[in-house]
Amino acid sequence: MNETDKQTPFYSMLHSNASRLQHLADSMPQVVWIADHAGVIRYRNKNGAELFGESTIGAPENLIHPDDLRSSERLWDECVVSGEVFEREHRIRTVSGDYRWFLTRSVPVRGANGEIECWYGTTTDIQHLKDAENEFIEQRERIWQSQKMEAIGRLAGGVAHDFNNLLMIILGECGELVSRSDLDEPTQASIHAIQDAGQRASALTKQLLAFSRRESSLPVTIDLNQSIRDARNLLKRMVGDQTKLEVQLHPAAILVRIDPTQFEQILFNLVANANDAMPSGGTICIRTETVLAEPTPGLQLEPQCLGYACVSIRDHGCGFPQEFAEKMFEPFYTTKQVGQGIGLGLAVVHGIVEQHGGRAHATACEDGAIMQVYLPLASPSLIEQVVPGNNRC
């Protein structure tokens, strides 16, 4: 085209239309691009240059996530050969270096002879849709988990309630027989064995009832530090001589409203769980502190003007993969070998803590695990003493 042609009205119209189309493409939020008949990108609009950089023209495969690259290339090659519309969700690296989800769609443009001359395409950022989808999936999983816990709780509670009624009869009859003086020693020993087994079974039903929240709760205001001091000797006897028990208590009294018996159950279950994780012995650390209701990964604390009391049980045992942390408090879930536990101890802890408005949390460490219980503080006098804790022993 010579200079004379460029001055004609037709050329001016073409130039004006091309300018309008360029401005239109640059004003669109999507990445607009054109590829040649072989699928090599030759043009991107302004948004494409800002998102992916000018230097990537003609080499989109350098930007696609490695996990998505092969399938995207295979589909693109098939569409180039067949002339079908290309549509694909995949992750693409932006100029910031981050991968984001995009929807890429392209249609072939055919010439008068029916052959593909080029491809017109758009690439749309759908990261917000993927985030919303993931959030929906997580919420659905939480609802499903809650419904599962409720169903198991009802089943366990019903069985435990009926079984406990039978145990009361057995233990009552054993009590009557023990008081008799006309029975020989072997018979007395057998009765005591039945009584001991019945009491252990009764303790198990109490755990099931606590898990299902059908056991009556009588919350009062207690000092967690004093409760731990009172239980310390029993805890030492429970863990045995191979295990050292360290206690690090907050300098001030920590007051919460909870059933004292149920708090002891929380304490004994967590310490027993820590002790089981160290079959060759080791150190268990019990720590108390006051913490603020701050956002913590994997922990949803309700805003409390008084903060929370935190009881941490730290062991140096075999630990567990962090991805299993959310399952640790599920009923009948256990990492122990067959015959070493039925997976109710932590579920009972979770049930009691939730019943009192708190949260239970498990954290995997390089050399063990930390089990934490958060309970709402009950004393206005602690407001000035509430400080973020480091959860270390």
From TrEMBL:
SMART domains: HATPase_c (SM00387), HisKA (SM00388), PAC (SM00086)
EC numbers: 2.7.13.3
Gene3D superfamilies for this protein: 1.10.287.130, Histidine kinase-like ATPase, C-terminal domain (3.30.565.10), PAS domain (3.30.450.20)
Positions of the Histidine kinase domain: 158-379
InterPro entries tied to this protein: HATPase_C_sf (IPR036890), HATPase_dom (IPR003594), His_kinase_dom (IPR005467), HisK_dim/P_dom (IPR003661), HisK_dim/P_sf (IPR036097), PAC (IPR001610), PAS (IPR000014), PAS-assoc_C (IPR000700)
One protein family per Pfam: HATPase_c
GO molecular function: phosphorelay sensor kinase activity
Superkingdom of the source species: Bacteria
PROSITE patterns tied to this protein: HIS_KIN (PS50109), PAC (PS50113), PAS (PS50112)
Signal sequence annotation: none
CDD domains on file: HisKA, PAS
Residues of the PAS domain: 17-53
Catalytic activity, reaction form: ATP + protein L-histidine = ADP + protein N-phospho-L-histidine
Keyword flag Magnesium: no
Domain PAC: 86-138
Record key words, sorted: Phosphoprotein
Protein name as it appears in the record: histidine kinase
Organism, scientific name: Novipirellula artificiosorum
